[in-house]
C-alpha cells in the first residue's frame, strides 16, 4: 500500500501572530514557518506504517508557494520516500482554500492510487478543519477524522476518534482518508544524516494548472482584524482577597 | 431564503444547548428548518420543534444514520440541499466531521466556526488560534457554515414548529460504528457550563486532579484541562480546552497550573471573568486574567474550595 501525506507550510506555532495594519491579513514576511504540527503527526504515522511493513511507500505532497519545498524536505528527512510540490500561489500571504487543495489532491490520488491518505485534522493558520473531509467527498471514499489511534489490517482500518463526548471507534474500508489528532503519536526529529539524505530524495514540482484545477478563492477576504483585547486585570494577594473580588463581581 | 440546520443529536437525544445556539446564529439568514437525523431521532425532532425561531423540523430515522457517521449523514443533507441557501450546524466534532464533506459534495467552500453573521453572504471567523478575526464574503450559491456555539446565546423555548419525516439517502456503506467510550458525569457539560475550572500540567498527576474536581463541584462547574494535562493522562481528551479542543466562554473560568499558551487561550479567552492560579508570576495566563493569584496550587486550591 502507498500512503499519501499532504503537508502544509504554516506559521510556526510558537510565533506571535501580527495582523497587518492595512487589515489585509496576517504578516508572514520574514516569519518562521514550519510544517503544520498535525501533519508532522501524519508523516510520523505513515513512516511507522512503513516500518511495520503495512505500507510500501510514503509520498508527501504540499500545495502552495514554492517555499513549501522546505516543508517537503522536512517530511523526506523524517522518512518519506518522495515528494510532490504543487505550486499554486506566488505570494506567501495567499492561502489556497481547502476546496481547491482537496481538488488538487484528488487528481494526485487518481495518479498515485494510494490506499491511504493521512491528513492533519486542522491547519493551525486558517483553522479550517476541512481538507480531509472534502477530499474524501470528492473521491467518494470513507473518512475517519480526528484519529488518536489507527489500526490498519488488510483492507480495513479501525480508527479511534477524539470527539466531544469522549472517544468513538469506527471501522472504515480502504482506500480511506484519515485525519490525525494530537495524541496519535509523537513525531520524531529528523537526524542530521537523514536531513542530508533527504536532499537527494525525489521532489517533483508541478503547478495547479497541470492538474487543471482552478484555485481562485470562493471566500473573499473582506478584512482581517485583531481580536478584541481584554481589559487589564489585577493580581490579588491572597485566597481571601480572591474570594472577596469574586463575590464583588457577582461571579460566585 | 431558507436555512437547513443540522441538529446535534446524540443517541436519539437532542443536544439542546448547541442546537439552540445555532438557531440564534441562523435567525438573520431566513426561515430555519432543523434536521434531526439518527437511528432514532423523532424525540430529538419533537424537542427541536419547541426551540423559538424554528419554522419546521425534518426527522430522518435510519440505522445508517446512527452514530452520525459522516458519509451517510452528508448524503442525507445533500439530498435535501436543493431547497436551502444556507446549510448550517453548531461547530461540534460531529458537525465538523460532516459539514466539509457536504460542502465539497455541493462544490462550495465551508465556513468553519463562524462567530458572527454580517449579512447573508458575509461571516466573521477566528483564524490563527483566535489571534486574528477574519471577515469573509462567500461567492458560492450555497453557504455551508458551522457556528462557534460559545459566541451565541441559546434561543429560548416556546416554539411549536411542524414536524415532517424524510427518508435517508442511499447508504454509501463506507464506514461502520464499533464503539463509543463516553464518560458519564453529573457535572454540567463543558461548552454550556456557567463556570469552568481547568487544570494544567502544574497539577502534576491524575490523583491530584481531584483538587480541580473538588473546586469544580463546590461551584457546580464543569472541569476542563490543558492539552498538557490531557497528554499526560491527568484528564480525558474531551476535557481539553483550546484551539484544537473545546471553545468555552463561561461567566467564570478558573485556570489552575496552566501557563497560558496561545493554543489554550484560543479556547477560553472570551470567558467573562478569568481567574488564574499559578506559582510563576511571569506565566502568560496572567495577561488575560481578571484576577491573578500567584501561589502554589496545592495550598491555594483547597483553601479556595473551603472558603467559597
Ligand atoms: C497544534 C497544537 C495545538 C494545540 N492545542 C492545544 C489546545 O487545544 N489546548 C491546550 O491547552 N493546549 C494546546 N496546545 C499545547 C500548548 O501549546 C501548550 O503546550 C499547553 O497548553 C501547555 O499546557 P499547560 O499550561 O498545562 O502546561 P505548561 O505550559 O507546562 O504549564 C504548567 C504551568 O503550571 C504552573 N505550575 C506548576 N506547578 C505549579 C504549582 N504547584 N502551583 C501553581 N502553578 C504551578 C507552571 O508555572 C506553569 O505555568 C497545542 C499545541 C499545538 C502545537
Ligand atoms: N496547502 C496544503 N498543502 C498540503 N496539505 C494541505 C494543505 N492545506 C491543507 N492540507 C492538509 O489538510 C489538513 C487540514 O487542513 P485545513 O482543512 O486547512 O484545516 C492539513 O493538516 C494538511 O494535512
From TrEMBL, chain A:
Heterodimer of an alpha and a beta subunit. Belongs to the ETF beta-subunit/FixA family. GO terms for molecular function: electron transfer activity. Keywords: Electron transport, Transport. It comes from the Bacteria. InterPro entries: ET-Flavoprotein_bsu_CS (IPR000049), ETF_a/b_N (IPR014730), ETF_b (IPR012255), ETF_beta_N (IPR033948), Rossmann-like_a/b/a_fold (IPR014729). Its cofactor is AMP. This is Electron transfer flavoprotein subunit beta. Pfam families: ETF. GO terms for biological process: carboxylic acid catabolic process. The electron transfer flavoprotein serves as a specific electron acceptor for other dehydrogenases. It transfers the electrons to the main respiratory chain via ETF-ubiquinone oxidoreductase (ETF dehydrogenase). It comes from Shimia aestuarii. Residues 23-215 form the Electron transfer flavoprotein alpha/beta-subunit N-terminal domain. The keyword Electron transport applies.
TrEMBL record, chain B:
Keywords: Electron transport, FAD, Flavoprotein, Transport. Its cofactor is FAD. This is Electron transfer flavoprotein subunit alpha. Belongs to the ETF alpha-subunit/FixB family. Signal peptide: none annotated. GO terms for biological process: fatty acid beta-oxidation using acyl-CoA dehydrogenase. Pfam families: ETF, ETF_alpha. Binds 1 FAD per dimer. The electron transfer flavoprotein serves as a specific electron acceptor for other dehydrogenases. It transfers the electrons to the main respiratory chain via ETF-ubiquinone oxidoreductase (ETF dehydrogenase). Residues 3-181 form the Electron transfer flavoprotein alpha/beta-subunit N-terminal domain. PANTHER family: ELECTRON TRANSFER FLAVOPROTEIN ALPHA, ELECTRON TRANSFER FLAVOPROTEIN SUBUNIT ALPHA, MITOCHONDRIAL. It comes from the Bacteria. GO terms for molecular function: electron transfer activity; flavin adenine dinucleotide binding. FAD binds at residues 201, 226-227, 240-244, 257-264, 278. InterPro entries: DHS-like_NAD/FAD-binding_dom (IPR029035), ETF_a/b_N (IPR014730), ETF_a/FixB (IPR001308), ETF_alpha_N (IPR033947), ETF_asu_C (IPR014731), ETF_asu_C_CS (IPR018206), Rossmann-like_a/b/a_fold (IPR014729). The keyword Cell membrane does not apply. It comes from Shimia aestuarii.
Amino acid at each position: 500500500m502507498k500512503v499519501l501525506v499532504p503537508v502544509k507550510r504554516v506559521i510556526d506555532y510558537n510565533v506571535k501572530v501580527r495582523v497587518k495594519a492595512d487589515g489585509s491579513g496576517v504578516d508572514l514576511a520574514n516569519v518562521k514557518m514550519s510544517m503544520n504540527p498535525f501533519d508532522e503527526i501524519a508523516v510520523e504515522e505513515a513512516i511507522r506504517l512503513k516500518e511495520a511493513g503495512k505500507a510500501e511507500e510514503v509520498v508527501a505532497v504540499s500545495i502552495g508557494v514554492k517555499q513549501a519545498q522546505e516543508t517537503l524536505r522536512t517530511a523526506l528527512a523524517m522518512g518519506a520516500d518522495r515528494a510532490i510540490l504543487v505550486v499554486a500561489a506566488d505570494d506567501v500571504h495567499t492561502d489556497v482554500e481547502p476546496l481547491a487543495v482537496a481538488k488538487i489532491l484528488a487528481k494526485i490520488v487518481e495518479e498515485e492510487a494510494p490506499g491511504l491518505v493521512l491528513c492533519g485534522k486542522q491547519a493551525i493558520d486558517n483553522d479550517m478543519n476541512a481538507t480531509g473531509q472534502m477530499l474524501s467527498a470528492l473521491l467518494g471514499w470513507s473518512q475517519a477524522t480526528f484519529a488518536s489511534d489507527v489500526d490498519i489490517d488488510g483492507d480495513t482500518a479501525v480508527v479511534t476518534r477524539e470527539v466531544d463526548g469522549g472517544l468513538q471507534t469506527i471501522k472504515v474500508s480502504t482506500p480511506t482518508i484519515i485525519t490525525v489528532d494530537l495524541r496519535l503519536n509523537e513525531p520524531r526529529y529528523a537526524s542530521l544524516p537523514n536531513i542530508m539524505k533527504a536532499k537527494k530524495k525525489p521532489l517533483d514540482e508541478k503547478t495547479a494548472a497541470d492538474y487543471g484545477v482552478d484555485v481562485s478563492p470562493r471566500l473573499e477576504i473582506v478584512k482581517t482584524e485583531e481580536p478584541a483585547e481584554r481589559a487589564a486585570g489585577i493580581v490579588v494577594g491572597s485566597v481571601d482577597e480572591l474570594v472577596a473580588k469574586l463575590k464583588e463581581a457577582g461571579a460566585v | 431564503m431558507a436555512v437547513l440546520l443540522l441538529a446535534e443529536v446524540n443517541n436519539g437525544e437532542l443536544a439542546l444547548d448547541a442546537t439552540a445556539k445555532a438557531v440564534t446564529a441562523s435567525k438573520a439568514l431566513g426561515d430555519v428548518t432543523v434536521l434531526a437525523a439518527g437511528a432514532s431521532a423523532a424525540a430529538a425532532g419533537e424537542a427541536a420543534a419547541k426551540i423559538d425561531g424554528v419554522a419546521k423540523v425534518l426527522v430522518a430515522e435510519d440505522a445508517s444514520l446512527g452514530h452520525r457517521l459522516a458519509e451517510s449523514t452528508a448524503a442525507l443533507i445533500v439530498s435535501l440541499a436543493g431547497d436551502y441557501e444556507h446549510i448550517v450546524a453548531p461547530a461540534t466534532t460531529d458537525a465538523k466531521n460532516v459539514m466539509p464533506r457536504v460542502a465539497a459534495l455541493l462544490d462550495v467552500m465551508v465556513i468553519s466556526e463562524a462567530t458572527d453573521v454580517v449579512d447573508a453572504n458575509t461571516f466573521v471567523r477566528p483564524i490563527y488560534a483566535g489571534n486574528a478575526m477574519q471577515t469573509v464574503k462567500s461567492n458560492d450559491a450555497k453557504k455551508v457554515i458551522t457556528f462557534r456555539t460559545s459566541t451565541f446565546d441559546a434561543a429560548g423555548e416556546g416554539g411549536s414548529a411542524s414536524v415532517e419525516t424524510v427518508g435517508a439517502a442511499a447508504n454509501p456503506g463506507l464506514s461502520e460504528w464499533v464503539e463509543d467510550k463516553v464518560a458519564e458525569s453529573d457535572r454540567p457539560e463543558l461548552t454550556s457550563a456557567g463556570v469552568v475550572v481547568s487544570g494544567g500540567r502544574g497539577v502534576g498527576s491524575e490523583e491530584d486532579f481531584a483538587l480541580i474536581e473538588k473546586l469544580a463541584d463546590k461551584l457546580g462547574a464543569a472541569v476542563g484541562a490543558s492539552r498538557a494535562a490531557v497528554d499526560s493522562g491527568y484528564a480525558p481528551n474531551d476535557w481539553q480546552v483550546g484551539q484544537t479542543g473545546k471553545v468555552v466562554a463561561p461567566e467564570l473560568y478558573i485556570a489552575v497550573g496552566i501557563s497560558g499558551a496561545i493554543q489554550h487561550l484560543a479556547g477560553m479567552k472570551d470567558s467573562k471573568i478569568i481567574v488564574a492560579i499559578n506559582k510563576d508570576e511571569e506565566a502568560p495566563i496572567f495577561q488575560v486574567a481578571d484576577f491573578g493569584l500567584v501561589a502554589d496550587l496545592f495550598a491555594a486550591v483547597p483553601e479556595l474550595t473551603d472558603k467559597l
